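Run Diacetyl reductase [(S)-acetoin forming] through structure prediction, thanks.
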Amino acid sequence: MNTLDLLKPRPGLRVLVSGGAAGIGATIAEAFLQADASVYVCDIDPAAVAQANGRHPRLHAGVADVSVREQVDRVIDEARDALGGLDILINNAGIAGPTGPVDEISPEQWEQTVSTNLNSQYYFLRKAVPLLRQTSDSPAIIAMSSVAGRLGYPFRTPYAATKWAIVGLVKSLAIELGPSNVRVNAILPGVVQGERMDRVIAARAQALGISFDAMKEEYLRKISLRRMVTMDDVAAMALFLASPAGANISGQAISVDGNLEYL
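Sure, done. The structure for Diacetyl reductase [(S)-acetoin forming] is below.
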């Protein structure tokens, strides 16, 4: 096989992307569609799901709150039926969670962040792993963590706690599922351009009592390359991990962050 061919995911892959109708998830879904995969996405936003449905003949979409186990069970069943099985699970859905001192974060805010960011990953895994074991075509799980899964993140403790937990989950599952030929990796995006990051910057600026521009400049100073990454950068890493070039990569937490030095 030509070395360049190793970088291309096999046409016909069956891919499920949670939180895949907008943002990073939608960019990942589109990248796999361009690579001739069939893709099912779920999202909590009915309007985003409605826009996704019908946009591409190999794209299927459904509404789901991933923090609710019964809704995730339904998504897995719908994806299996729509795609005829499953080769790649991309556990992408998540929320930013609250910004503030830990003693001012309510139990409800903490529990919502943990339920959406961490519990949902388990809900997808418990139903998807049996399907992945059934496919012989290099099945893989890609979990979306964050650079906050390798660095401390003051005033964002619920978010950071879930993202560190995802890395531990991935490293444990890679050992558990390796004998079944299922690869498991985490992607740790850094400061990603877009509306969501703008909201995070604005919330943190408010918590610290500084301007949005000053807060944004502080984020950029922490990045060795002095620039944010794009959603396409993250999608490219997901494609690589699903390609033959990634066939022997498992149990890794891979940062796509321009070398974010600290948070």
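The mean pLDDT is 95.
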